[in-house]
Structure formats: C-alpha cells, structure tokens
Amino acid sequence: MSMHLLLTVLAVGVGAQEVYITKTGGSARPHCTAPIDSPSYFFQPFSFTLNETVRYATSVPSLTTTRKYGPAPTDALKHFTTRLSTTTWGSWLPGHTAVAASDTADPYGQAAWSSMWLSADLQNYTTTGIYSTTVSPTPVPRKELVLPPADYFSPTDCYDFPKDFVFGVAGSAAQIEGAVGLEGRSPSLLEKLIADDPMGVEYYSFTIPWTRILPFALPGTPVNKQAIDHYNDLIDTVLDAGMQPVVTMLHFDSPLLFFAGDNITRHPDIGFNNAGYQNETFVDAFVNYGKVLLTHFADRVPIWITFNEPLLYSFNFQGVDNVVHAHSRIYHFYHDELKGSGKIGIKFNDNFGVPKDPKNASHVAAANRFQELQLGFFANPIFLGKHLHEEYVGFLRHRPLHCDSRIPADGGVDACASNTSTANSLFPYCVKQETTNRYGWNIGYRSDSYVYITPTYLREYLFDIYNTWRHPVFVSEFGFPVYSEATKDLPDQLFDSPRSIYYLSFMSEILKSIYEDGVHVMGALAWSFVDNWEFGDYAQQFGIQAVNRTTQQRHYKKSFFDLVDFVKTRQPKQ
Ligand SMILES: *[C@@H]1O[C@H](CO)[C@@H](O)[C@H](O)[C@H]1NC(C)=O
Ligand SMILES: *[C@@H]1O[C@H](CO)[C@@H](O)[C@H](O)[C@H]1NC(C)=O
Ligand SMILES: *[C@@H]1O[C@H](CO)[C@@H](O)[C@H](O)[C@H]1NC(C)=O
Ligand SMILES: *[C@@H]1O[C@H](CO)[C@@H](O)[C@H](O)[C@H]1NC(C)=O
Ligand SMILES: *[C@@H]1O[C@H](CO)[C@@H](O)[C@H](O)[C@H]1NC(C)=O
Ligand SMILES: *[C@@H]1O[C@H](CO)[C@@H](O)[C@H](O)[C@H]1NC(C)=O
Ligand SMILES: *[C@@H]1O[C@H](CO)[C@@H](O)[C@H](O)[C@H]1NC(C)=O
Predict the structure, then answer these.
(1) Nearest ligand to the CA atom of 430
(2) Pocket lining for ligand 3, CB < 6 angstroms
(3) Which segment of the chain is annotated as a signal peptide (predicted)?
(4) In a mutational test of the pocket of ligand 4, which residue from 279, 284, 315 has the highest number of ligand atoms less than 8 Å from its CB?
(5) Do 163 and 75 sit in the same domain of this protein?
(6) What is the pLDDT at residue 537?
(7) In a domain, 38, yes or no
(8) Is residue 403 included in any domain, yes or no?
(9) Are residues 322 and 289 in the same domain?
(10) Are 73 and 296 in contact (CB under 8 A)?
(11) Do 207 and 279 have their domain in common?
C-alpha cells in the first residue's frame, strides 16, 4: 500500500533479444582513466590507521519566514454557505459495550457516535492508542548522530537538486498514529478490513482521517473540535521543526458508514473487496470534507493530495468517475474560490510494466494497456481533459477493476481484451506479470514484499509519465522493506545497506531524469519515516527509522543518514 515505483515486467510470451543486458554490461569501467600496468610488489612498514571520517548529522534549521498559502481559517470559513457547527465527543475505549449517553434524540450526539462503534462490532479492538496528541520531540543525543560507514559503491551522478525540489518523508494516520477511537473519531473501513491494533506511535507528508474530522461524514454534520485542534497542533509542530506539511485527505480510511449493510471482506491480493458504494452521496460528502480541511488548514499547507491510490478502492467504473469528479471539485474550490497558492494533486499507485520484448508489438500493446488501466483511467481526464475510453467504460461499468493476473493470457492481449465474459479472469488487464527477465533473473534485488530495486527502469518510467500527462511528477511514496529485517537484532536492522542502495540509486536516477531527460520531477517523499503498520503486518518494515514498540524509542537506520546526506551534499550552490 505504499509503492509507486515498483517495476513489473509484463509478458505475453518470450521473445529473443538483449534489452536488459545492454544497459548493465558488467565489465565497463567508466571511471578508469589510467592504463592498467602490470603490478609491482614491494615491502613497507605497517601501522593501523583509522579510515573512518567522523561526521555528524544536523537538523534542518527552523523556517525564518512563514509563507501563507491561503486565507486564514476565519476568512476561509466564510466560503461555507451554512455555518459549520463544531462539537466534541470523547473516546470509545476497549470493552465498551453499552451506550451510557442520554442524548438519544440528537442525531449527532454522544449516543449516536457511540452506536457507530457498537454497530461496527469490532471483536478484536483491545487496546487504546498510545498517543492522541502531538508529543514534543525528544532531542537525539549527539553520539547517535554520527554518520554510518559508507557503502563501498556509491552513486555516479554529478548533479545538484533544483532549488524548489521537495524532499521529505511520508507516513499515514492509520499506519503510524494509532488513536483508534479516541477524541471523537468514528470507525473507518480499515477497522473492518484489518482486525489488528495499529501502533501508537524538510517535508513531512501525513494523512488526516476523515472519520476523525467528521465522525458522521456527511455534509451538514458537526465538525470534531478535538480533531481540528489536533491537526492545527501537528501542522504548527511540523512548521516549528523547520519542515513543511504535505497533507493527504483520504488514505484508504473511508468512513464505515458508507458501507452499512455491506459484506466487507479483504481480498487476499488487492486488499479491499465488495464495496460498490461510491455514488453521488460519497462524492458530495468527500468534497464537503475536503472543504473543511482546506478552510481550516490551507493557510499553512503548501501541498495537498486529495486521494491516495484510488485504484485500490475504486472497484468499478463508477468509482473511478466519482474520484475524478471529487478531485476536480476540490481542486477548483482551492484555486478558484479560496485562491490557494499552494499545489493540489492526487496520488496514484502504479506498477510500471515494461514489455519483455520491446520490439514485439503485442508485448508493447500489453504494457500500454496495463499503464492505461492503472494510471490513464484517472490521469487522462484529470490532466488531459480526455473522456475515459469508451471501450473501458462499457466493459467496466459492472465489472471489478481487479482480477487475478497470474494466469497466462492465451491468444494475446487483443483476444483477451475483447472477451468480456466473466469467466475470463485476466480481464481487464489482460497481461501476465512477471518479476524475472527473459533469462530467468529477478528484475532486481528483492525486498520482503513485492518491491525490487530496479533503478535501471526508473528514468524510463518518469519519462513516460511526464511526457504522457505533461504535468510535474511527484514521487510521493517510495520505499523498501529489507528482507527479513523484522527478525534481526537491532544493530543489524539499523545497518540496512539494501535500503540505502535503493534510495541512493533511485535519487541518483531522478537527478539524471531531471538534467538529462528534461523531466520535471518536483520532489520525492521516502516511505516511510518510521517502521509502520502495513495493513495487518508489522513484518514488512519500510521505515528509515526503527521503532521499539514497547518503549516507543526510535533509532535511525543507516539509510536515513545516507539518504539525507545524499540530498544535503547536492544542494544548489547559492
Ligand atoms: C510476439 O509475442 C507474441 C506473444 O508472446 C508471440 O506469440 C509472437 O510470436 C511474438 N512475435 C514476434 C515477432 O516475436
Ligand atoms: C586508509 O587511510 C590511509 C591513511 O590515511 C590511506 O592512505 C588509505 O588510502 C586509506 N584506505 C582506504 C581504503 O580508504
Ligand atoms: C480476532 O483475533 C483472533 C485471534 O488472533 C482471530 O482468530 C480472529 O479471527 C479475530 N477476529 C476477527 C473478527 O478478526
Ligand atoms: C448512495 O449510497 C448511500 C449509502 O452509502 C445510500 O444511503 C444512498 O441511498 C445511495 N444513493 C443513491 C442515489 O443510490
Ligand atoms: C461475505 O463474503 C464472503 C467472501 O465473498 C463470503 O465467503 C461470505 O459467505 C459472505 N458472508 C455473507 C454473510 O454474505
Ligand atoms: C472467454 O474466456 C473464457 C475463459 O478463458 C473462455 O472459456 C471463453 O471461451 C472465451 N470466450 C471467447 C469468445 O473467446
Ligand atoms: C525494546 O526495548 C526494551 C527495553 O529497552 C528491550 O528490552 C527490548 O528488547 C526492545 N525490543 C526490541 C525488539 O528491540
């Protein structure tokens, strides 16, 4: 639920020519200038030398000026035609079984709020969140800020980041915060789909839970005062720490009330299922929620994201259409009515597929179709003003977007694409995904999940996105769960060379993409700033910090220092 730059090799068969090995030829030594003579051997005195240079990491300086990106809340709130009401509900704690509140006549009172938790029937809701407010940062002792030993091999680019490049780290509310039913939050879809308990826990990217801001979700229902206070506090804390906030409005945690009566289950591969809920009620409610956030926080937030990875919960054509419309209405409210001067966008998940044989038209068609269905669906109408392709609209109106794509497409893409029978389990993607190249090698070093280290394809990917949709590209989440990291002792977890290689090689390729390919990559956010809860799973550790879940103590991993150092040593010269 966090990768945007995974490479997936598409194949509808195996052809025969060398696309992979030409780029990575093993014996070239581009940095060798001197001719290699024969060795000469000689004796010398020996003494130990300390070969490590000790360097200390330092924090980003506090911001000297505070830029405003929109009107202050008092002015912004005038954009609501009817005044927003604000209230406070309290907390839903483990073991609550009865509703004590007597305000049963109030549709948005304490009793109505508690009954949402009761009817969610969460059998395994057993602990409270650890934090419900923003804790003050604990200063890190200087001895813990010594940079780790460098990896022997290092990136080869010679570029500095552009002045306005956005570099930061990302997390999401449900995956790092915890505060499950505290301070007026109501249940979201995630409570039903994943029964475990979430852990308490330059740009900091976080997400705001809809059900914490508007427990009753719909337009006209009261705003949760404690939630507004909390996010004001968080945003101000981020600014005080010298960082800038990037805010995502919806990160899988749709209000559970949209699913009343649905049989919600979790699909083993894609996450969510059985939720054909997204009608206009959803769109209006989401737009209202977006306006509540923008009117309260837009003055201090430079970058907004409406939806995170909508492909994973759009389910069908109607879902895609609703996401596009909701995004567009919020975008226009922000720019046209609120006159916001920051940026507002949308985050897509996309497994970039490359044809196994780029000279085979059928392979290329498969790769294009794969990209069209994952990204084009949303990006064509949003960025190019294009209508959704009639072919897809017709077929997908009543079909799920997801299917089991592990079965080979006999007969090729075209035959599969024109076979809309429900028995055709490859439809709609009609591709077979593989993660080995034509010679049977993995496409890259593998992680603990579906992510591989594939810098070789990153420039091609960014080039494709930028030149197809012609807007700045933001690498909004990228990260790597090192294989078996969770089973290692702490010192071994912290020395995470594979993650360093992942980040440094990707950042180096991003620079080449900017300077050599003319691609406007506006920024990159590492996922995630701390080991998180990966939807029911603590084993896939994506963090650049480890966290002790008993003591909440954090420890920087090597990759954190390496990544920050990489960016710091490539700042534009003033
Ligand atoms: C292209 O790929 C298809 C599907 O794998 C295969 O049937 C066909 O023979 C290939 N064509 C060429 C020219 O290699
Ligand atoms: C280690 O340090 C010595 C003395 O400073 C230097 O001559 C040598 O090249 C260093 N070796 C490496 C591998 O950096
Ligand atoms: C609750 O936890 C138990 C033990 O881990 C598990 O067997 C059960 O399926 C869980 N119930 C739900 C509704 O997830
Ligand atoms: C839309 O969905 C909501 C539940 O989420 C339902 O109450 C409402 O009747 C639906 N509206 C239409 C027009 O289908
Ligand atoms: C809910 O859906 C699951 C999976 O589709 C199915 O196995 C189960 O029987 C359904 N339960 C009810 C009560 O319909
Ligand atoms: C469509 O695909 C299904 C499942 O593979 C197959 O049984 C059926 O014959 C196909 N229909 C056509 C018209 O090819
Ligand atoms: C967490 O910290 C406690 C207390 O220092 C320690 O006993 C425990 O081993 C730590 N857990 C892990 C997984 O490192």
Answers:
(1) 6
(2) 123-124, 195
(3) 1-16
(4) 279
(5) yes
(6) 67
(7) no
(8) yes
(9) yes
(10) yes
(11) yes
Q: What residue owns the CA closest to ligand 1's atom 7?
A: 13
Could you tell me the distance, in angstroms and rounded to a whole number, from the CA of residue 408 to the centre of ligand 6? 13
User: Which ligand gives the minimal distance to the CA of 123?
Assistant: 3
Structurally, the chain folds into a number of domains equal to: 2
**CA angle, residues 448, 453, 454, in degrees to nearest 5:** 145
The residue range of the domain holding 376 is 356-432
Same domain, 334 and 409: no
- 55-91 confidence digits (pLDDT tens): 888 777 777 778 899 999 999 999 998 889 999 998 8
State the distance from the centre of ligand 4 to the C-alpha of 537, rounded, in angstroms.
33
Do 147 and 60 share a structural domain?
Answer: yes
Token pair listed for 276: 């054909």
pLDDT (mean) for 382-405: 62
Q: Name the residue with the closest Cα to ligand 1, atom 10.
A: 360
- Provide the strand spans (E) within 268-384: 271-272, 303-308, 343-347, 352-355
How do strand 521-527 and strand 271-272 relate by DSSP bridges? unpaired
Atom of ligand 3 nearest to the CA of 123: 13
Determine the distance separating the centroid of ligand 7 and the alpha carbon of 550, expressed in angstroms.
7
Pull the structure tokens for residue 182. 């505290």
pLDDT in tens, 407-456: 336 567 778 877 777 777 777 778 888 888 888 899 999 999 889 999 98
For residue 438, the one-letter residue type is R
Whether 178 and 114 map to the same domain: the answer is yes
Average pLDDT for the chain? 80
- The CB density around residue 64, as the number of other CB atoms within 10 Å, is 6
For the CA of 263, the closest atom of ligand 5 is: 1
Whether 45 is covered by a domain: the verdict is: no
Whether residues 391 and 462 fall in one domain: no
Report residue 548 as tokens: 């002790």
The finding on whether 424 has its CB within 6 A of some atom of ligand 6 is yes
Query: What CATH number does the domain containing 251 carry?
Result: 3.20.20.80
How far, in Å, is the centroid of ligand 3 from the Cα of 402? 26
Q: Which residue has the higher pLDDT, 554 or 318?
A: 554
pTM for the predicted model, two decimal places: 0.84
Q: Are residues 259 and 151 in the same domain?
A: yes
Q: Which residue has the higher pLDDT, 177 or 252?
A: 252
* 483 contacts: CB under 8 Å, gap ≥ 6: 446, 447, 448, 498
pLDDT at 523 over 70: yes
Q: How confident is the model at residue 507 (pLDDT cuts 50, 70, 90)?
A: very high
* Of the residues 432, 465, 489, the one at which a domain ends: 432
Give the contacts of 164 (CB within 8 A, at least 6 positions apart).
Answer: 522
In a domain, 44, yes or no: no
Q: How wide is the angle at C-alpha 483 spanned by C-alphas 482 and 487, nearest 5°?
A: 100
Give the closest ligand to the alpha carbon of residue 194. 3
Among 376, 403, 432, residue at a domain's last position:
432
